[in-house]
Design a protein that fits this description.
Order of helices and strands: HHEHEHEEHHEHHEEHEHHHE
Largest sheet: 7 strands, mixed
Shape: globular
Number of strands: 9
Distance between the termini: 20 Å
């Protein structure tokens, strides 16, 4: 598939991650901590397990500074970290050297729409935690997912996070009030209509795309994936993270997480509660 002219401004995306503390985003506050915790629970329930005789190769595509690459590598997975941002990759390389993480195979600068540096059928798993937040054009998303299918082995799994349409669009209302240099009424109207967010300034989150869960399901289905799961990541814990982390009783905390899991596939929660995840298997 030929992309023609790529419409996402990837330089703006890279510049954003030069200044945003993505490396520590999942540790800096309870919102990030709950997102990491729930994502790892999803992975632990759905990832194939490495064994002494069988390695599991993971491509962490858009993996930033390695927030998931490092813990998965330490669990025995063979992880290839790929990202657009030189800044985040340098942070990952430094940590790899400091922590001597041998199972982190490489840190590659890659655009998610072009995985030509990887051979067909190279990985058992692809994590796509980030690129779908930024690929504003349909052709880019199609190319990204078709490339993921190519590098996955048959029966391999993809874990793809996305920002649902209503969550992303409604969040821009706050930005419209707080940062009018970034969002005007036309920007807001465009996002509600198309899911695209084009920041008017160089400050703040850049080049956003907010699809419905149905759009994500269709995107992967059309590219040869069978759906295993679509759910909200934080579920009803979204924007209640500080309250949840006040419960120091481990049994109570565990029960709350179980309740989040039990309701996370509800369509209204998916669309309204922050980041969501699609899990699919290559036919």
């Amino acid at each position: 598939m030929s992309l023609g002219k790529i419409m996402t401004d990837f330089e703006k995306v890279k510049n954003y991650y030069k200044h945003f503390d993505e490396k520590n985003r999942l540790q800096n506050d309870n919102s990030g901590k709950l997102e990491f915790l729930m994502t790892m629970r999803i992975l632990e329930k759905n990832l194939p397990l490495p064994t002494a005789s069988s390695d599991i190769s993971i491509l962490d595509l858009g993996g930033g500074a390695g927030a998931y690459s490092f813990p998965l590598a330490k669990k025995g997975y063979k992880v290839t970290l790929a990202d657009l941002s030189e800044t985040l990759l340098e942070q990952a390389k430094k940590q790899k050297e400091e922590d001597k993480v041998q199972n982190l195979i490489s840190c590659d600068q890659v655009n998610a729409t072009d995985l030509s540096c990887y051979k067909d059928n190279s990985f058992e798993v692809v994590l796509l935690f980030g690129p779908l937040y930024h690929l504003t054009e349909e052709a880019e998303r199609e190319k990204c997912v078709s490339e993921i299918r190519r590098v996955l082995k048959t029966g391999g799994k993809v874990f793809a996070s996305f920002i649902p349409h209503l969550s992303g669009s409604i969040a821009l209302v706050q930005r419209f009030c707080w940062s009018p240099d970034q969002v005007d009424i036309n920007t807001l109207e465009e996002c509600f209509a198309s899911g695209k967010f084009k920041n008017l300034s160089d400050n703040g989150f850049q080049e956003g795309y907010y699809p419905t869960s149905e759009e994500i399901e269709t995107l992967f289905s059309a590219n040869g994936f069978d759906e295993l799961l679509v759910r909200s990541i934080r579920g009803f814990g979204y924007e209640k993270e500080d309250v949840i982390y006040k419960f120091k009783n481990k049994n109570v905390f565990s029960k709350l997480l179980e309740l989040i899991d039990s309701t996370a596939e509800d369509k209204s929660i998916i669309e309204m509660c922050g980041h969501a995840m699609y899990v699919g298997v290559k036919k």
